[in-house]
Specification:
The complex is a heterodimer of chains A (about 50) and B (about 230). Chain A has one helix and no strands. Helices cover about 80% and strands about 0% of the residues of chain A. By secondary structure, chain A is mainly alpha-helical. The longest helix of chain A is centred in the middle third of the chain and has 38 residues, at about 5-40. Chain A has one domain. Chain B has about 230 residues and is mainly α. Chain B has one domain (about 30-225). Helices cover about 80% and strands about 0% of the residues of chain B. Chain B has seven helices and no strands. Chain B has helices at about 1-25, 40-65, 70-100, 110-130, 140-150, 150-160, 180-225. Chain B is globular and about 75 Å long. Chain B starts with a helix and ends with a helix. Classes of the chains: A mainly alpha (about 50), B mainly alpha (about 230). Chains A and B meet through helix 1 of A and helix 2, helix 3 and helix 7 of B.
């Protein structure tokens, strides 16, 4: 059974999912930092 | 707190590297399935971690409903979010294992597969509710959804004990026979994934606390501007 490619695919998919979630968390962190700095400067939040 | 987070980060990195080596190199090759059986070292610990996180979500939701405790609400949100990530890993690695072993990606109607998919959809709905509803009652509604959603957790776990299913029998505690070395590698991988889940949950918790503080400060600022 040539199964090694399935094994690599499963492990790669696992790390791709965790990596994507960590990237989402990093983006949220960057957004919160920007909001904090804007609040410190006393600027209003731009209207969406 | 920062030192604790750094320590957990280093421990998680070391454990994950060791667990990867154990799963790919040290664990013996299974006789009938060959190397594809090694997917089991990521699939099963991810499933156990996801179920544990959903149980934490259930407990935190009950505490929130009883005491209206903000920390419990944040713990519920964080555990559901990280649980969905681990459950996604289960739903992706399962079919990748099934294709060479069963000859199909998915067994339609199989109770273990179906209940796991339903569990994932329930908690995804929970996260969508929390993300897009801005009502002050959202945490209460979400906690109720979480409590009903948790009913699916024992159904997922015990489905292979009580129903005829294509999914393999439980590897531990269900009469299944697992090689001692394989069981050890499985437990090492679970420990590594538990550390990863703990690290991500802790980081996400701090992020949510900071987000709520920013939202509160913005609301106060708007009130102040409005009153001038």
């Amino acid at each position: 059974m040539n199964s090694i490619r399935y094994l690599y695919a499963a492990y790669a998919a696992t790390w791709a999912i965790h990596g994507t979630y960590l990237l989402i968390l990093l983006r949220r962190y960057a957004q919160i930092r920007r909001d904090m700095q804007r609040l410190k400067r006393g600027e209003r939040q731009p209207l969406a | 707190m920062k030192r604790g987070l750094t320590f957990l980060g280093v421990l998680t990195g070391l454990l994950l590297s060791f667990a990867l080596y154990e799963a790919l190199v040290a664990a013996p090759t299974e006789r009938t399935m060959g190397d594809v059986q090694r997917i089991f070292y990521y699939h099963v610990p991810s499933a156990w971690t996801a179920l544990l996180l959903f149980l934490i979500n259930f407990a935190a939701s009950v505490i929130f409903l009883l005491r209206r405790n903000t920390k419990a609400d944040i713990v519920a949100l964080v555990s559901a979010e990280v649980g969905v990530v681990f459950c996604t890993v289960v739903l992706v690695t399962g079919p990748i294992w099934a294709r060479p072993v069963w000859g199909i990606w998915w067994a339609p109607g199989d109770i273990r597969l179906t209940t796991t998919l339903v569990l994932w959809l329930i908690y995804l709905s929970y996260l969508v509710l929390r993300r897009f509803s801005n009502s002050s009652q959202t945490p209460v509604v979400a906690a109720v959804v979480a409590i009903f959603g948790a009913l699916d957790v024992p159904l997922v776990y015990f489905s292979i004990w009580f129903f005829r299913t294509q999914h393999p029998s439980p590897v531990i505690g269900g009469g299944g026979s697992l090689d001692r070395q394989m069981a050890m590698v499985l437990l090492i991988n679970w420990a590594a994934f538990l550390c990863l889940a703990g690290l991500v949950c802790w980081t996400r918790y701090l992020l949510e606390v900071a987000k709520r503080e920013v939202d509160e400060a913005e609301a106060l600022e708007t009130l102040y501007e409005g009153s001038r």
